[in-house]
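FAQ: What does the model actually see?

It sees only this:
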Amino acid sequence: MFGTILTIVVPCFNEEEVLPETNRRLRKVLSDAAQEYLISDTSQILYVDDGSSDRTWDLISQFSEESRQVSGLKLSRNFGHQQALIAGMETARLKSDCVITIDADLQDDVRAIREFLIKYHEGCDVVYGVRRKRETDTFFKRNSALAFYKIMDKLGVRLIPNHADFRLLSRRALDEFVKYQEENVFIRGIIPELGFKSAKVYYDRLERYAGRSKYPLKKMIQFALDGLTSFTITPIRMVTYLGATFVVIAILMIGYTLIQHFIGRAVTGWSSIILSIWLIGGIQLTAIGVIGEYIGKIFKETKHRPRYTIEENLFLYERQARRVHAGK
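And it is asked to produce this:
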């Protein structure tokens, strides 16, 4: 048990304000877990700098020099939160028995990591960190998240409610996860699809320690759309059903109009014509937009571009240096 090598993957984007405290807390978690023989003392924290414009990478480099528990991965530009997570997981996979992902803002309670490891040693390949409540979120974010989970469930997409990207994956789960090579990746939807034995660890969501959220409304909407269109074609089917419904309504209206004409009650109305044009036009534009969203996804997938580009890899350097040192 004590030989289990854990890597904690932490995506970072302009996190210089919070990173020193994050590093202090995560190092303590590693030390405490090693003392309990839950993990090996060679376990590490892997920070992934997702194209930060502040001193984030300088701090990561400094932490790495100060402690063998810390290493870093620098991406060449900002690729996005999900891609940064994937970069960290794929980098850590070959050198780790399990990987835990957590955001740098300290809203996810690091004390729950101990429970993650216990569940892992009980045989779980996937452990989800699930919020007990969302009191720290705004009214809009709390209710929009609830609506998102309900909609995804109705559309047949399996998600873990109130679970973000705070989770543990075993080496076996990681090996299967990397086989999913789509460009429009939605990690929260992929992980439940793996089907391995899983568990949930509940924790209280904390206030952000420092800095500001990197997920404004625009990004939240885009994230929700990516999740929806990456896992189901139900929206296109709904557009088809809607179109068929209006065809039926149109046929009924034609019949009604002909009856009114023959009984002499036909009255031409400008308002009804204009309203009909606006209604049908709006539906057509919406339908085109939904179809266009899927075509855009196909366009990106066919390019097969890399998800990310690594500019500097301290994790690889640290591991190699330790093997050389051990050989001496």
